[in-house]
Amino acid sequence: MPRQPLGCFYLHWSDGSDLTALDERVSSGTARDADFAGAVVGEAAGISHQACGSPLRVVDLNQVIPLFSDAVERSSAHKYQQLCPVCGKRINASILEFIEPGS
What we know:
alpha+beta, five-stranded antiparallel beta sheet
């Protein structure tokens, strides 16, 4: 029995990887480490955009989970969401995806 509550984490790619083909390789047991080379780890979070005050549900970069030995390099190369979907102003955060913008 786990001593800590289970968490939900997301793998996120911004390099144009064909994720449908990757899902098929994972399902068939033929996926390789190279298939995950462009992935970073994210976690769902609720934030408020400082400029407009809008509440946002996002997948945010998680640098605490040591899933990949080259996590720093991956996070540096990754493309992040840069504009608030509500007001269009810049967001200074490591947002991978918006889940529920402005909800």
